[in-house]
Amino acid sequence: MDLRHKQNLRKDFLENGFDSYVFFTLSGKEEDLAEELNGKYEDIYCLVLRRMVHRSDHGKKWDEQSIMIKGYVFIYVPSNYDIRYIRSDNNPYKILRWKLDLGKLFGDDLAYATWVLKQDGLIGISKAVKVNQKVKIVEGPLAEMEGYIVKYSPRNRNCLVELEFMNQKVSTWLPFEYTDQNYIMDKTDEITENKKN
């Protein structure tokens, strides 16, 4: 798989539009399916949604990646692409469908798939500040998810995000870290970076 070509394809999709689908495979086979299809078809882009996770054991802390939605592979194709011709030689899958058009994503599902594509399949660590004893996300992927954050764990530096995707409720903890950058809050509770001249 030519990584430069795939990144150019991703950029082109974000600039010019795309159709998106979700393939469902066996848990643990997500990366295998995405890698196989990315290598076999040069005009599609496949992503497994991964997230960074804070871990700790006996006082030692580290971050690692884990798959966020097990069994799901996001498929991005040019508009009006016939996905019936996509075949895997090694990994079983089915196209998830609950709407029309052979499972093509629309509405909120397409918005979610677009967010996944913007993050290139990896939900990294967002930056946050404490304002009046509350956590406020100021940068990173969680900044776009503010309305979906239902709970903060400031001590563990994680947010519980709940949203609906493919007619299912998806709940997951996503990490943040406190930033030492200087932010100020205005009267509308908006936070902006305090840049000194």
Walk me through what this model shows.
- The chain has 197 residues and is α+β, with helices and mostly antiparallel strands.
- It has two domains: 1-124; 125-197, no CATH class.
- The chain has helices at residues 3-16, 30-40, 107-118; strands at 19-25, 45-47, 50-57, 60-67, 72-77, 93-95, 122-123, 126-131, 134-139, 149-153, 158-165, 168-178, 183-185, 191-193.
- A five-stranded mixed beta sheet has the order 9-8-12-11-10, with helices on one face. Strands 2-5-1-6 form a four-stranded antiparallel beta sheet, with helices on both faces. Strands 4-3-7 form a three-stranded mixed beta sheet, with no helix packed on it.
- A hairpin with a 2-residue loop joins strand 3 (50-57) and strand 4.
- The model is unreliable at 184-189 (pLDDT under 50).
Number of strands: 14
**First-to-last CA distance:** 46 Å
SSE pattern:
HEHEEEEEHEEEEEEEE
Number of folding domains?
2
Low-confidence stretches: 184-189
Provide the helix percentage.
10-25%
Mean pLDDT reading:
83
Shape by Cα distribution = elongated
Supply the number of helical segments.
3
Spatial strand sequence of the major β-sheet: 9-8-12-11-10
Rounded radius of gyration (Å): 19 Å
How much strand content do the residues show? 35-45%
What is the makeup of the main sheet? 5 strands, mixed
Structural class: alpha+beta
What does the secondary structure layout of this molecule look like, with pairings?
Elements: H1 3-16, E1 19-25, H2 30-40, E2 45-47, E3 50-57, E4 60-67, E5 72-77, E6 93-95, H3 107-118, E7 122-123, E8 126-131, E9 134-139, E10 149-153, E11 158-165, E12 168-178, E13 183-185, E14 191-193
Parallel strand pairs: 3-7, 8-12
Antiparallel strand pairs: 1-5, 1-6, 2-5, 3-4, 8-9, 10-11, 11-12, 13-14
